[in-house]
Write a structure and sequence with these properties.
three-stranded antiparallel β-sheet; 172 residues; Transferase(Phosphotransferase), domain 1; two-stranded antiparallel ribbon; globular; alpha+beta
């Protein structure tokens, strides 16, 4: 925080740093050496102000996270825009939220297309009337983002013999 003042711009910068941490699994700062010198591994690895920052983020993705390529690309772009060195070029939080929702929506659509071919892999979850909530096997209601697949459970897969319970694919 160069100005010493908390603002939307500084908070967006902090959020962008968190996104980068999630993507590459490096700490933003650490103590090193006998003198406990402060180092900045995340900024050193990404070098956000230098050309090619996006490629460096993608190259250093945390492989254990198994980020879908499109999601990683979009989150990297968002994170880099959030940590722009010129505060006025950073997005507002409203725009950050909009972008995250768009990324989520596109990712969810992609996951649903892929999972519809493997419907048996989706955990047993039933949709509430109108598809606005999800009831999990433990009976708890969750008002989370989800999608009710149009495919129906085959009677041979369903012990209640109703055969018409929609499969849901919650994304949380």
């Amino acid at each position: 925080m160069q100005t010493g003042q908390v603002s939307e711009h500084s908070e967006v910068y902090s959020f962008g740093t968190v996104l980068l941490e999630l993507l590459v699994n490096l700490p933003p700062a650490a103590l090193a050496g006998a003198n406990a010198e402060i180092i900045f591994p995340l900024l050193k690895a990404v070098q956000p102000a230098a050309p090619g920052a996006h490629a460096r983020v993608i190259q250093k993705l945390d492989q254990r996270a198994e980020w879908p390529q499109r999601v990683a690309d979009e989150l990297a772009d968002l994170a880099l825009s959030c940590i722009d060195m010129t505060p006025d070029r950073r997005p507002s939080f409203a725009n950050v939220v909009r972008d995250l929702r768009n990324i989520q929506h596109r990712s969810l659509g992609s996951q649903l297309r892929e999972s519809s071919e493997h419907c048996h892999d989706v955990p047993s979850i039933t949709c509430a009337a109108g598809g606005s909530e999800v009831s999990t096997a433990d009976g708890e209601w969750h008002g989370l983002l989800h999608h009710c697949d149009t495919q129906r459970v085959d009677e041979s897969d369903n012990d209640d013999d109703e055969g018409d319970t929609p499969r849901c694919n919650p994304w949380w």
